[in-house]
Amino acid sequence: MAGGSGRAAPRIAVLLGGLSAEREVSLSTGRECAKALRVAGFEVVEVDAGRDLPARLHDIQPDICFNALHGRWGEDGCVQGILEWLGIPYTHSGVLASSLAMDKSRAKDAYRAAGLPVVESRIVHRDVVAAGHVLPAPYVVKPNNEGSSVGVYIVRPGQNAPMLSAEMPEMVMVETYAPGRELTVSVLGDRALCVTDIITDGWYDYDAKYAPGGSRHELPAKLPTEITEACLDYALRAHRALGCRGLSRTDFRWDEARGLDGLILLETNTQPGMTPTSLSPEQAAHVGISFPELCRWIVEDASCNR
Length: 306
Known about the structure:
Elements: E1 11-16, H1 23-39, E2 43-48, H2 53-60, E3 64-67, H3 78-86, H4 95-102, H5 104-113, E4 121-125, H6 126-131, E5 139-143, E6 153-155, E7 171-176, E8 181-188, E9 191-199, H7 206-210, E10 216-218, H8 225-242, E11 247-254, E12 263-269, H9 279-286, H10 291-300
Parallel strand pairs: 1-2, 1-3
Antiparallel strand pairs: 4-7, 5-6, 5-7, 8-9, 8-11, 9-10, 11-12
């Protein structure tokens, strides 16, 4: 693949860091992707995405932007809109799909319309949450537009309504707690890769996701064939229902005692973590796609005006 500027190799601007609560995760993702893209033969410039991003991209003149941002502004349609305005092809999902997936409430509406199983949820003011139980316990309280389990509260039977931290937004999502095993499926283009069983000692929170030894991943997950097939099918349908492109990852909880009725779709991540040991690259490796090959595929899938 040759760059449109006549360069020997396309110049890739890897967008990393950014302004969200998931900055550190994004820095890790971006640095690993930059290394892999250099191995794959691209010219790579790492760009810590601050408020001067348009000016920096104007100076760099990249052929493609590899979006390694996580959280608000990076995966909610904002940076995608900037790149559309500048006319620079970029990786992962477009403006609408990114915005829709990041808004958990509206994403659930899209899942329901596609016939996918989700739990009951409501968007309420944080003061209402503190005043009393909005749903019967157990339930979960979390921001409607953050990822990486940032700001998640689990309220169990017998506990008081939670007093939320000052960092929580005014409007939050309250949803019925879905018990069971934590499963996840990556979709690459039009292909669901495999199912991973995420095994932890407790809740799959921020530390379990990113701290060394916080969790272990079993893939392919040891599941009944019916559940494996349903996870793969639901993940691909969720990817399509939101209008995603490139790589996405959809998370599930499965209550074994309830069989297929116990499989619940939680959310879809349009910017999955991308270190060699992250969930999506692990699944790609399982089906024979190395990390540099995965990063190359994502770059070659980049587009604009979507």
